[in-house]
Amino acid sequence: MAPNPPDEYDVAGLENDVEILVDTWGVPHLYAQSTNDVFLAQGFNAARDRLFQIDLWRRRGNGLLAEVFGPAYVEQDRANRLFLYRGDMDAEWAAYAEGTREAVAAFARGVNAYVAWVRENPAHLPPEFALYGYVPSFWAPEDAVRFRTHGLFYNAEQEVARARTLRDAGREAEELRQAREPADRLAVPAGVDLDLISDDILRVYRLAFAPVDFHGAADPASARESISGSNNWVVSGERTDTGRPILANDPHRAITLPSLRYVAHLDAPGMSVIGAGEPGLPGISIGHNGHVAFGLTIWPVDHEDLYLYELNPDDESSYRYGDGWEPFRVIEEMIPVGADEVPVALVYTRHGPVIYSDPARGFAVAVRAAWLEPGMAPYLASIGYDAATNGSEFLDALQSWGAPGVNQVFATPEGDWGWQASAKVPRRPNWDGSLPVTGDGRYEWDGFVSAPGLPSMRRDPRGWFASANEMNLPDDFDNTDLTTTYDWYSGGRSERLTEWLEHHTDVSLDESLAMQSDAQSPHALRLLRALQRIDPDAIANGEELSALLAWDGVESADSRAALVFEIWVRRHLRPWMIDRVMTAEGLSPEQARAARAHVMKDESFGGDLRGDIRMIERLARELEADDLAQGVASTLDDALADIAELLGPEEAGGWTWGRLHHSAIAHAAFAAADGVDPMWRGVGPRPRGGSGDTVGMAGYDAQFRQSIGSTFRMVIDVGEWDNSRALNSPGQSGDPRSPHYRDLFDPWVDGESFPLAYSRASVEAMTQSRILLRAPIRASHAPG
């Protein structure tokens, strides 16, 4: 056990003392006399609670893992260095709101002040450092902006998957794999040879985004776990039970310990903002500041293009561009490996980093990424709106928003509210970004379009707005002129929110909190409606089909129907439908089965039933009733046998979705080590409802463990700020010795929340501990 932490610290760089009041749920409320001091204190406090986490992020992002973990991490270090921002730093800082550079510098000084203190007091080091035998590093301000592979970006993965599916299985298979929205004819860009595209070309790209694997070298496929979503909604006071606006947000990310987000309250002259951000960044991205409430969801803008280059057959160090050959740009760096160093070559084209080269076949692949442009450090632009005093100032701040693409919603006590799609979207004059293109100069970007030129809404007469990563382009937006993306998330969650908000004119905080855990799947119900023509009495297991057809679609943990549906549709009905549809498209049975590899989905990505609905509705139209019934009956039989193998005979303990589907969160660094306190290793398991298709997002992995969801949730009573509620699972602290390491896991599973105290009186009433950061004593001198 570590000694009790002190309640006072001497902190170099502070102009005046800073108070930190930590409330019952581990939320720090920082009171400072200047913005410089509050951002410095935010860095100090983030390190106090999340030091191992943010130190690891810095190491991974800057390609410094091998220095402490050994040579197995060199390849991942090289991948991350390949994707560092390497542009002009003056242009980088100038791209953000005024004061961002100063805020980041103060935050870094605060982190460093705590690092210096804890290195001098090693008993207080988080135990991961002793476990792996190193100490935390000091930060430079640039560390917060140069590495960007912690962000959510699109759509290199889709370009490769789409190219391979089109080549191997055709257009219908591609529509089943990923719905194209809005509907538009997919064209293969001239000059592109789809035969060159293999899954291997993304290995380096995936390594750059992969989380650290403490067992050894990272699995590139683990980067796909970053695929995620979010829900938010804002409701006018005319449609709430209090007459005040309500704003709710529950961002979905990979389920981790410690959690991605950290809740804090920053109070200084001219700014008092509370909510969640990422612990390694200054500012608050989701919350309110007493004037404006704000929240975001991913708006999956296509920020990436894959370029294919013809290599010079006489000189592999150059590639075709225009009518000639252009040399690759090579940066030589040394990666520290313990006390040694390993040289690496980082190769670039005019478009971006080279991620794959095949001299034998004469081609290379590079990524052009908008997020490698100035001003694109993920979420950092939120500093620009943290002190906004009204809706117009909030919207003005979004003009500097770069990445990731988000749906920003806001509301004010005066009744102003709305939505602004926010991103810097590349303008592609002669293609839409759906597939790789040649890098010979035929396909170039023509600048960017940012928030003022993107869709928005302000005080819509219907009285509400919601987003859930669905295709939400207005009817008058021309996606062929400015292609945002065609790769939107499933609209299932959006449909559920729309149904709820359209029929409720007295929305409450409690209803909003409950909706964030809602487990009804509209798409499950739509799929089942397509089977209404089947007479359950005509098939052997008709009682199972009858139960599904009568089901309300709520995937609660105690639901038997949810269990049968999930196992049946995703593991048995889906492959049967793929085979039948592909055969109808003229593929041989062998080719149809091969197409499964492209169309089958990994449920840990979030669970998308759009392709399944398309297939079942088509088969319901085209197949004879007996053929459809036979397919349903045989796949249901297989699903029931599958469940029996997973859970045992039904009479042995009952079949419910929660017996299989669960939440259990492991701390990656402790899970890979021996001799660690079991309470440090993780939390759970607990039975879990929902799926990747429900508002209460609960996508799951092959072991039915929840892999994605909203560990942070917030509902804001706009104007009566102390009524607001939040939750951040499994806890605020990343130190396993802290009482706030795992205290919020059970409340999260149970759908509970805590008060998001804002006024000083409310904070004082909920204060659990106090910390004083003391400014250095400055000697005064009388004038001479």
Automatic annotation (TrEMBL):
Q: How is the cofactor bound?
A: Binds 1 Ca(2+) ion per dimer.
Output the superkingdom of the source species: Bacteria
CDD domains recorded:
Ntn_PGA_like
What GO MF terms are annotated? Answer: hydrolase activity, acting on carbon-nitrogen (but not peptide) bonds, in linear amides; metal ion binding
Could you tell me which Gene3D superfamilies the record lists for this protein?
A: 1.10.1400.10, 2.30.120.10, Glutamine Phosphoribosylpyrophosphate, subunit 1, domain 1, Penicillin Amidohydrolase, domain 1
Give the active-site positions. 230
Question: Which SUPFAM superfamilies does the record associate with it?
Answer: N-terminal nucleophile aminohydrolases (Ntn hydrolases)
What GO biological process terms are annotated to this protein in UniProt? Answer: antibiotic biosynthetic process
Q: Which Pfam families match?
A: Penicil_amidase
Residues that hold Ca(2+) according to the record:
159, 302, 305
What are the names of the required cofactors? Ca(2+)
Query: Sorted alphabetically, which keywords does the UniProt record give?
Result: Calcium, Hydrolase, Metal-binding, Zymogen
Give the protein family. Belongs to the peptidase S45 family.
Protein name from the UniProt record: Penicillin acylase family protein
Q: What is the lineage of its organism?
A: Bacteria, Bacillati, Actinomycetota, Actinomycetes, Micrococcales
